[in-house]
Amino acid sequence: MRRKGLASMAVQTVASTPSSDPAARTGTVDLGPAAALSCRECGERTPLGPVFACEACFGPLEVAYDLPGGSEAAEALRKRIEAGPNNIWRYAPLLPVPADVAEKPNVNPGFTKLVKADRLAAELGVTGGLHVKDDSGNPTHSFKDRVVAIAVEAARAFGFTTLSCSSTGNLAGAVGAAAARAGLRSCVFIPHDLEAGKVVMAAVYGGDLVGIEGTYDDVNRFCSELIGDPIGEGWGFVNVNLRPYYAEGSKTLAYEICEQLGWRLPDNLVVPIASGSQLTKIDKGLRELISLGLVEDKPYKIFGAQAEGCSPVSKAFKDGHDVVRPVKPDTIAKSLAIGNPADGPYVLDIARRTGGAVEDVTDEQVVDAIKLLARTEGIFAETAGGVTVGVLRKLIESGRLDPAGETVVLNTGDGLKTLDAVAPTTGPSATIRPTLESFREAGLA
Amino acid sequence: MRRKGLASMAVQTVASTPSSDPAARTGTVDLGPAAALSCRECGERTPLGPVFACEACFGPLEVAYDLPGGSEAAEALRKRIEAGPNNIWRYAPLLPVPADVAEKPNVNPGFTKLVKADRLAAELGVTGGLHVKDDSGNPTHSFKDRVVAIAVEAARAFGFTTLSCSSTGNLAGAVGAAAARAGLRSCVFIPHDLEAGKVVMAAVYGGDLVGIEGTYDDVNRFCSELIGDPIGEGWGFVNVNLRPYYAEGSKTLAYEICEQLGWRLPDNLVVPIASGSQLTKIDKGLRELISLGLVEDKPYKIFGAQAEGCSPVSKAFKDGHDVVRPVKPDTIAKSLAIGNPADGPYVLDIARRTGGAVEDVTDEQVVDAIKLLARTEGIFAETAGGVTVGVLRKLIESGRLDPAGETVVLNTGDGLKTLDAVAPTTGPSATIRPTLESFREAGLA
Q1: Is residue B224 part of a domain?
Q2: What is the nearest CA distance from A132 to chain B, expressed in angstroms?
Q3: Interface contact A104, partner B, CB < 8 A
Q4: A430 lies in some domain
Q5: Any idea what DSSP says for residue A60?
Q6: Do B258 and B241 lie in a common domain?
Q7: EC number(s) (chains A, B) (predicted)?
Q8: In a domain, A124, yes or no
Q9: A177 and A63: one domain?
């Protein structure tokens, strides 16, 4: 039933298996509680290493843990977390990182604000409490800092000296910054025709930035080739051969939300969908907290949010399909514009299992939602935040999200990065001469 | 000896004294430990109210406190601070804000990262420990969120319903966001010919944004007129009639630096100079911590940093003058481009008293320093951060800052806001076809 997603993963797998794989890279790695990689499809276990697809069935690999259990352990763990640093490393016991991770130079993302959004709640009619998890507060102002920080630790563990990725924006900046802080070389690949501002953000950290003459798909294909070539020896591609570790970074969003609510699960979460990885890892994080006894086990609903111009998962959800049919993206929400989302089928499973939904909004609704969030809460969101807030509004209006439930909506990036989205409709109320008379005439007094 | 600075303050004072000043606005205000306003020149005390210049001598007013003392009180205070929220409100007992400030809706700035900058230290030859206080992590990505947050509490205390300011960028965004979160109206005045990006950042929070046909000086003059007019009744101008409170927000930088160092004073601080207010308040904050017994009393040196194209304080320092001669700014460091800095004379006093200095760097050095900081630490600074890091380098190279001392350099804003500064010299290492051969030819493998 997931042939489509798996087939596309399989192609990458073949290309990305390292041509040589020194024992040193898989033997004695210390990634804390991470015990192995396990296949999300067939459950087959693989030793920790720079691989991302199951050798048996080509299914995606994810990190499996040896985690403590029991109520006594839960109490000790909670205390340890609360005494930890104000960043994702407070959750080191639940992440694939060594115990001393906080002492190493890294950008220390996370523990971003969970904003009690009473004014937005009033506008939307949410009565059960509304919170915005605002990841624009991360070092390079998007949630990507979380996932890259974990990938850096995996890169160190496997002896990689160059950090790399394909990107169209946020990820390039996150990788550049993280590599600079960690003292790793970085080499990031982007389509050659990116907007000038994004190129600056990607290049300023001093790593190599390579423009590829072609589309983002061409960039990805090139990266897969590079991993299979001797040139790529020693290179950690955060979103390819380090992907199982990288993806775990999104669990920290779930941990933080629950801790910031006072170790409680919210009733509803509205999460953006690009590849779908973030949403699946948030679900994984919530389930871990339940099984560890850190939060009370109770139902929660996860809602996925897409832009209409790239809504393959939303369409599959509405059509009752298990298969996600790829689309060609056409939306201002470029950080979510993945037409063939690898984790789409898992997102469908989670939305259905938890009683949530997947919905999409038009670009116009995205812009309206960005402005609504800015006007009510003083949070200037990237287009992805406009997508989630817009979808939240739509879900409430159509009665599919219970406004009496406690709700968390994610803003995963910063409006400064997508100024173009709001620029055409955002400007001065008036332009006047520097006189009181002119101000009176403007009608703003 | 300070006639120049005072004369320019005096002009504003006359214009900005409210035409009517209801008793309700000065009578029963609760601003926590703030006891009165006191004149920095003659010491005359004035009740707390929306005034900023001494009626006796036109000197600038600042907040005077009733603070606890004694070693027992210090221990209790330290514990209370450490148990407080991860933002400036942990220091509420030392700020002009009500005790319940953290429960009110506000953007909760501060407690930004103090980054141990070992790689930058190695490049600069700092051996005693180097830290970057990175205020780009604030809600609107500049230190202005700190000062505006305090002004919001003063505005509430004095019954103002509109929050206002004159601005060329960072402050407009900070006021817009803070007012939105607090549920206050905002009306912000800018020169009409600001860059499009800055206009969007100022306007997106939904308050009124008014373009003024004229220069920034014209905008300021207009605001002074507005405060004296009945139209301005009920308006709190954060950087004019709320300035004594607003300015106190910068003390939190000093508190955080010392707490994050483990309740210890650094040996050297490098601080940018715009009006000079921030530097004077950091000094005030450090002296408060000493007198409260929260840090050990030991010498520290404060160094001021300007861009050569707007370096009136640096020039006065080098010339051995007490008077700061105004200049017409011409620099890419626009957030520091105040040609007639009101607190310039106080900055000179502090640099001389502490054994520091005031230095300036060229625009080219600013750009180099931005890139140096990005490349070594993964921090993308606004031009103001390029100024401080550039000045730090110059001070070390000329032997005026002891590299064996523990040093803190401030980055007060985000590089995303001043992309133009680095754009002309920041781009891809190479542009290639999507083939391994083309990549090999580029010489980056």
Answers
A1: yes
A2: 12
A3: no
A4: no
A5: B
A6: no
A7: 4.2.3.1
A8: yes
A9: yes
From the list A180, A378, A435, the residue facing B205 with the nearest CB is A378
- Kindly give the interhelix angle for B170-182 and A363-377, rounded to the nearest 10 degrees: 80
A238 and A356 inside one domain: no
- A414 close contact with B: CB closer than 8 A: yes
pLDDT tens digit sequence for A3-42: 333 333 333 333 333 434 443 444 578 999 999 999 999 9
Range of the domain at B297: 114-141+248-425
Residue A230 sits in the same domain as residue A270: no
Q: What is the pLDDT of residues A115-133, one digit of tens each?
A: 999 999 999 999 999 999 9
Residues A203/B426, Cβ–Cβ less than 8 Å: yes
B423:A196 CB<8 A: yes
B217 pLDDT band, cuts 50/70/90, is confident
- Could you tell me what percent of chain B has a pLDDT over 90? 86
Domain at A242, CATH number: 3.40.50.1100
DSSP structure class, residue B101: G
Provide the CB-side half-sphere exposure for B411 (13 A, CA).
36
Q: What is the mean pLDDT of residues A345-356?
A: 98
Domain shared by A208 and A350, yes or no: no
Of A246, A279, A296, the residue that ends a domain is A246
> What is d(CA B103, CA B443) in angstroms, rounded to the nearest whole number?
57
Domain count, chain B: 2
By the CB < 8 Å criterion, does B20 face chain A? no
Q: Is A48 left (phi over 0), alpha (psi -120 to 50) or beta?
A: beta
Structure tokens at B98: 């009500």
ipTM of the prediction: 0.93
Task: Write the pLDDT tens digit of every residue in B284-335.
Answer: 999 999 999 999 999 999 999 999 999 999 999 999 999 999 999 999 999 9
A-chain CB neighbours of B102 within 8 Å are: none
